[in-house]
C-alpha cells in the first residue's frame, strides 16, 4: 500500500497508539477536505454558494420547509437563514407558499429556476467527484462510501434522512442510481 492509501503512521501523538495517530490523521485530512471544498465551491458552481446549494438541496429533499426548519436543521441563527432565504428569493430560486394545513405559516419551495440551477450544480459536483475518484478501485470506493456513511451516522450528526442531496438514493460503483 502507498502512503496515500493508509493513515499516516508517523503522526506523533504523545502517549498515543496507532489508533490515536489514525484519529489525528483523519482530523487533519477532514480539515483539508473542508477547506478545499469551501475554496473550490465558487469555482465549481459560481451561480450558487455552497450554503445556497446546501439549502436548495435540503428544500428539494423535503419538498419544501419553513425557514425555521432550515435554521433548526443546520443549527443556524434564524437571522442567518433569513438572509440566505431572501437572497435565494431575489434570485428567483425559491418561493414562499402558504401552508395548506396552517395558513399562518409560509413554506419555502424551489422554483423551476431553482430546480434547474440545483440540477446543473449537482451534475458539476458529481462530475468533479467522478474525476477525482476515477482511478480508485471499486472496492475502495465502496469502502470509502461506507466509512463516510458510518461516520455521518454518528448519533450527534444529522439524522440519516437529512443528508446532503449530493448522493441521493442507492448508489452503484459507477455513481449511477
From TrEMBL:
<feature type="region of interest" description="Disordered">
    <location>
        <begin position="157"/>
        <end position="177"/>
    </location>
</feature>
<protein>
    <submittedName>
        <fullName>MarR family winged helix-turn-helix transcriptional regulator</fullName>
    </submittedName>
</protein>
<dbReference type="InterPro" id="IPR039422">
    <property type="entry name" value="MarR/SlyA-like"/>
</dbReference>
<dbReference type="InterPro" id="IPR000835">
    <property type="entry name" value="HTH_MarR-typ"/>
</dbReference>
<feature type="domain" description="HTH marR-type">
    <location>
        <begin position="23"/>
        <end position="153"/>
    </location>
</feature>
<dbReference type="InterPro" id="IPR036390">
    <property type="entry name" value="WH_DNA-bd_sf"/>
</dbReference>
<dbReference type="InterPro" id="IPR036388">
    <property type="entry name" value="WH-like_DNA-bd_sf"/>
</dbReference>
<dbReference type="Pfam" id="PF01047">
    <property type="entry name" value="MarR"/>
</dbReference>
<dbReference type="InterPro" id="IPR011991">
    <property type="entry name" value="ArsR-like_HTH"/>
</dbReference>
